[in-house]
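quick one, 275 residues, struct below
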Amino acid sequence: MLGGCQGSTGPASVAPDGYEWASRFPYLTVRDQVAAHVLLANELSIDRWAGVVGGSMGGMHALEWAITHPERVERLAVLSSPPVNTADQIALNSVQLEAIRIDPRFQGGEFYDLSDGEGPHRGLALARRMALLNYRSPIELNQRFQRSWQSGVSPLGSGGRFAVESYLDFHGNKFTRRFDANSYITLVEAMNSHDVGRGRGGVEEALKSVTATTLVLGIDSDRLFPVDGQQRIARSIPNTLDGNEAVVLTSDFGHDGFLIETEAVGAHLRRLLDA
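---
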């Protein structure tokens, strides 16, 4: 993914002047990222995809592929993804980005030359913890952790911690070992740009241009991208598998359900690929 930190060019990549792009890396939209996909497909001489499948941010890319190049997409699957990033979603993202930016070691994005090699890991870990709360549902967290303690030390004034706190810390700290803070900002801002209707006469008008046979799938407990967004997509695309209705899976896992409920999601993807 253009702007990322695991293969494609991103802020941590070295610019022609021999220094990391860092804060100089340009602002990207989801459409810019799909334009990069298109250039790659052209280079590989792939004229038409049998299927373009994406979940979450990948679903944003999949929608853009099908809208901007309908003749090149035979089948489309949009999993747990919205037609636009709403004000609520942008607000949730904004506090994550601020957590990174207020870390003293962020230094306006120019942290790659710090002598100890440590960037804004505390801010990035906090942003990841915030995001994780949106990926999982209250049902799952409550059932999994309840009010259990992480150790034998009480969290009620005795210095102990609740188990759910340690769970968030573990995933936040683990994330900092494999991700770049500037890339996190770049990708979240790209997600904020997502609006398939921008400059196209609105969401419904844009989605009418999709010619691919389409599967739209959501998770009933998803609080990041609720199912009303998937229903809006399904009702506007002309050729969906389920009569202009999104498939809604029941899961306690929230947004991450599309990654965890593999058997159910796989069954619907097989329907699409057999169509």
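The radius of gyration is 20 Å.
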